[in-house]
Amino acid sequence: MRPARSGTEWSVDVPRLGAVLSFANRTVRCPPGQSPAAANPDEIVTKVDICHRTNSNQNPYVVNAPDASGDVSGHDGHDGPVWDDSLKENHIKWGDIIPPFKYSGGTYPGQNWDATGKAIYENDCVPPDPPEEQLFGQLQIAKVVTGTEGVPADFTIHVDCDDKARDDVTIHPGAPAVFSDIEAGSTCVITELGTGGFPSGTTVSYSPPTANTTGVLVEANQHVDVTVTNAFPTASGPTPPGPTVAAEAVSVTPRFTGPSGLRALTTPGATRGS
Length: 274
Known about the structure:
Radius of gyration: 38 Å
Largest sheet: 4 strands, mixed
Strand content: 25-35%
Number of strands: 18
Low-confidence stretches: 1-29, 270-274
Number of domains: 2
Number of helices: 3
Mean pLDDT: 78
């Protein structure tokens, strides 16, 4: 174990999580299984390691080290029971695991600091008992394009599911993207990227309409279809020539002029000879 110094703060890490105590000029971790209060009940701490919830049954918690005041004002709001593998399929959010500690604003009693919560905390925020077999659902995203003006060669889709991060995917009409690893009970929000470069007048729509707002729910062994439609303008070519129109006939009225007895037929604009 080697201490490291950053500014005026000394940090000492150990292989197991334990708790982290931050005093005015040093940060040390408690032995596994001990909360900051148990390690030093009279000390005022500024940081505490916690188990911060995710929404994944395969990785339900991650280690987080917020300020002690942040635990009280923020992470304390991440309430709910200690994780177990039945919660997600029933759409129940589990809560953070936070040990009790003293801080400048008072004493925090802890959250989910029971035997089950402590066991997960002491195991680096990993449940000591593996979850039951994970169930999955499938998500398919298809592309439909209408119009002809400014249609790009490919389309990029961002898929944000709350079980884990995924890479953006490229799709084409007739070539959908299929995700078969969506944890049962996950919500996925689908967003098409790069639409700002589409021609003026292009519209983007989603089916179902909630796909890019509140998302779609993927249940166990369920296939969920999402369609992203782009309506591009239709390119217009030169106007074809119209039919030839015949000149309109002009009506001419005879007019008689000249000496008595002499009759001459004239038309407007004609020149009379001498």
